[in-house]
Specification:
The structure holds 2 protein chains of 2 kinds.
Chain A: H1 41-44, H2 48-58, H3 64-67
Chain B: H1 11-20, H2 24-37, H3 42-54, H4 58-71, H5 76-88, H6 92-100, H7 108-121, H8 125-133, H9 140-152, H10 156-170, H11 174-186, H12 190-207, H13 229-234, H14 236-249, H15 253-262, H16 273-282, H17 288-299, H18 307-318, H19 322-331, H20 333-339, H21 342-356, H22 358-388, H23 392-422, H24 426-435, H25 437-440, H26 444-455, H27 461-474, H28 484-496, H29 500-520, H30 528-542, H31 546-556, H32 560-563, H33 566-584, H34 592-608, H35 631-645
Helix pairs in contact in B: 1-2, 2-3, 3-4, 4-5, 5-6, 5-7, 6-7, 7-8, 8-9, 9-10, 10-11, 11-12, 11-14, 12-14, 14-15, 14-16, 15-16, 16-17, 17-18, 18-19, 18-21, 19-21, 21-22, 21-23, 22-23, 23-24, 24-26, 26-27, 27-28, 28-29, 28-30, 30-31, 30-33, 31-33, 31-34, 33-35, 34-35
Chain lengths: 68, 646
């Protein structure tokens, strides 16, 4: 493309509608977060061997049938 | 961290200890390992759900509670938590379904509240409203929820009073303070908004120093604080985004960016959609490529901030990616109705059409313009009526409305004018401006473009001076804040009307300010005087006086390390090319001395131009050839042409 040298054409301003920042909308009141259940995790997550031992300790003579 | 050894007999204390210290991610890791051995462990699932909820990882929390509802259908809480998690994960349909399966009487109030929240989230406002109206009216939550509904209806004054009333009952709560600030923001009452935001931020810093507010701005590299429930409860993310939004609206762009970096630090993957959007928007100037990536990514998210779509399209237009804009508009036809106002849609479509069919675009813009001018006339009348009634409040409001309407009209008018401008039909551009004078004569962009269009019509130098001069005079104490082309064109207009004295005085003034700046910051590039000289030099070259013109151009770029930039080089090389062309055609003779000066000049450009690009890379395009896209390369090329001719 070729054109004769002329005066420098200034840039014609074409402003755009303004950009809009985002905001977090107001939130409805929430229900309380889930409550924390309490467990004896040592009992729940023990290895099988330990658990067997625990059950053994708990068992008396009357539980023999269940134990076996 | 991956292999935390659980000591026999200390499992309970270890895990509950972590939860107490809010080390949720560590707890989650251990619990996940346990879950592999005991896939149906109620303890593991329940604690995992708890921790994930605290970490705001609602999708995975929902998963845990879902399994618990299957394993323990008798525990109604789990069904409630399941529905709650789904709601927070924005899975509204599923949340509603689960919430309907809870039938224990003792939960009825909670379920009602939850369902209202679900409907609100899903934008079913009438549905949410009827549920909220069933809630006990003495519960402050009901007041807050009604406030949210009023807010969505655009009734900000009433919404604000609801939030304020709720806070009077419950005492200070950061989320309520945020809501109040937000109402003020929507009504453009920025100073009360900022005051409430400051309270939220101060409270957050005081209660939770561990959230590292402001550390990133200070330049400290801080670890992510994660998206914890604690962070959510401080409303800090909300407050900092709102602060950034206000500063952005006030055009304090640096403060806007700072508000975003002041926010408690999180990694980019952890950012919520609003923050991600604002980071993209407010850093467009320095990292447009990343900005476009983020906005395009957001468009795939559900939900994304409603502003995303319009902003992305406008930014495509700004960077002249008209085809991309057209594609995105076509691919997302379903979004246009929801996210674009009719005005914005018409405007974007017209600008895109301008590329392929200027006539069609002009017609569309003309239709828009008549709508806008009609609105402006009505508002003018309204302002006058308010003045007659001496209602100050109403005057203020209607003047604001008029200004808003004018800000909508100006882009339309300028797009229309640009169609004629590009065809160099300056007479028509001037006509358009004459027609719009009654609305726009106070508008800066309008005045500037009027000046330009007079400047471009040979023989209207005097009139051009009349428009350029006030712009310059307005900023006479800080002349470098005026764009260089305005200063240059004013100088040219002076010279063309034989007012050389004025031109010289203005140039001395610019030189003085540049020297002052060079003293304060020697490495900063300033182009004003350089561009003025380039424009004048070009003018002389264009009139055939190459020896004087070229010497101006050569002088304009000294010292090279401060003056060589993509734009200045562009205008300098145009003059050289024109000189070379005229020499090749034997139209002009140039003294050897001048030619030697040209070659010496190009040598200097070659030396200082290694790191100066001739074309700035575009954010969405492949970067240009690194070697060729330098002033050094082009200067060498021009030098060869000179030597060939010589």
């Amino acid at each position: 493309s070729h054109e004769q040298l002329g005066v420098i054409t200034p840039q014609f301003e074409t402003p755009l509608p303004p950009l809009q920042p985002a905001v977090i909308p107001p939130q409805f009141r929430e229900l309380p977060a889930p409550s924390l259940d309490l467990f004896d995790l040592d009992e729940q997550f023990s290895t099988e061997k330990v658990r067997l031992a625990q059950i053994t300790n708990k068992c008396g003579d009357d539980d023999l049938e269940y134990y076996v | 961290m991956a292999n935390i050894q659980l000591k026999e007999g200390e499992v309970t204390s270890t895990i509950y200890g972590m939860i107490k210290d809010q080390r949720y991610s560590e707890a989650v890791q251990i619990l996940n390992v346990q879950l592999q051995s005991y896939p149906s462990s109620r303890a593991a699932l329940s604690l995992l759900g708890y921790c994930l909820y605290q970490m705001q990882d609602f999708i995975n929390a929902a998963d845990c509670y879902e399994q618990l509802t299957v394993l323990h259908p008798e525990v109604e809480e789990y069904r409630l938590y399941y529905a709650q998690s789904l709601n927070k994960a924005c899975l509204y349909e599923e949340a509603m379904k689960v919430s309907c399966q809870i039938d224990a009487q003792q939960y009825s109030v909670k379920i009602n509240k939850l369902q209202a929240s679900i409907k609100y989230g899903a934008d079913d406002l009438p549905g949410a409203k009827s549920l909220v109206e069933n809630c006990p009216s003495d519960d402050p939550d009901t007041e807050v929820n009604l406030g949210c509904l009023l807010f969505k209806e655009g009734r900000y004054v009433e919404a604000c009073s609801k939030f304020t009333a709720a806070m009077q009952v419950t005492g200070y709560k950061p989320d309520l303070a945020y809501n109040i600030a937000l109402c003020h923001y929507m009504m453009k009452q920025y100073s009360p908004a900022l005051r409430h935001i400051a309270n939220v931020i101060e409270g957050g810093i005081k209660e939770h120093p561990e959230l590292s507010v402001g550390m990133t701005t200070e330049g400290l590299d801080v670890r992510s604080v994660g998206n914890t429930l604690t962070l959510h409860e401080t409303a800090l993310i909300e407050a900092f985004n709102l602060k950034a939004a206000i500063e952005y609206q006030l055009k304090n762009f640096d403060s806007a960016k700072e508000a975003l970096t002041d926010m408690p630090p999180r990694s980019e993957e952890e950012l919520d959609v609003v923050t991600l959007h604002n980071v993209a928007l407010m850093n467009m100037d320095n990292s447009p490529t990343a900005g476009f990536e983020k906005l395009q990514f957001l468009l795939q998210q559900n939900p994304f901030p409603p502003e995303t779509f319009g902003n992305l399209l406008l930014l495509y237009l700004k960077y002249e990616y008209f085809d991309v804009a057209a594609d995105v508009l076509a691919e997302n036809a379903h979004l246009t109705y929801k996210f674009l106002t009719p005005y914005l849609y018409d405007f974007i479509e017209a600008v895109i059409t301008r590329q392929t069919s200027p006539e069609e675009a002009y017609r569309k813009l003309d239709e828009m313009a008549s709508k806008q001018t009609e609105a402006l006339r009505k508002l003018t009348k309204h302002v006058q009526e308010c003045r007659i009634n001496r209602d100050d409040e109403a005057v203020k409001k209607s003047v604001n409305e008029y200004d808003d309407a004018l800000e909508k009209y100006i882009p339309v008018l300028m797009q229309q004018a640009k169609i004629y401008w590009d065809r160099e039909n300056y007479v028509q551009v001037e006509k358009l401006f004459r027609k719009s004078v009654e609305f726009c004569n106070e508008h800066d962009v309008w005045k500037l473009n009027v000046a330009h269009v007079l400047f471009m019509q040979d023989g209207k130098w005097k009139e051009a001076t009349g428009f350029y001069e006030p712009i310059v005079r307005k900023h006479y104490d800080n002349i470098l804040s005026v764009s260089a082309i305005v200063l240059a064109n004013l100088c040219v207009s002076y010279i063309m009307t034989s007012a050389n004295e004025e031109a010289e005085e203005l140039m001395r003034k610019i030189e003085k300010e540049e020297e002052q700046l060079a003293y304060e910051d020697p490495d900063k590039k300033v182009y004003h005087l350089c561009i003025v000289n380039l424009v004048i030099g070009t003018l002389y070259c264009a009139k055939g006086n190459y020896e004087f013109g070229i010497s101006r151009v050569i002088k304009s770029l000294e010292p090279y390390q401060r003056k060589l930039g993509p734009d200045t080089w562009y205008y300098a090389k145009r003059c050289f090319l024109s000189l070379i062309e005229n020499m090749a055609k034997h139209m002009i003779m140039i003294r050897d001395q001048v030619l030697l000066e040209c070659i010496a000049f190009l040598d200097c450009c070659e030396m200082y131009g290694k790191d100066v690009k001739t074309v700035t890379d575009q954010p969405l395009d492949e970067p240009l050839h690194a070697g060729r896209n330098t002033v050094t390369y082009e200067a060498r090329h021009l030098k060869t042409l000179f030597l060939k001719l010589h």
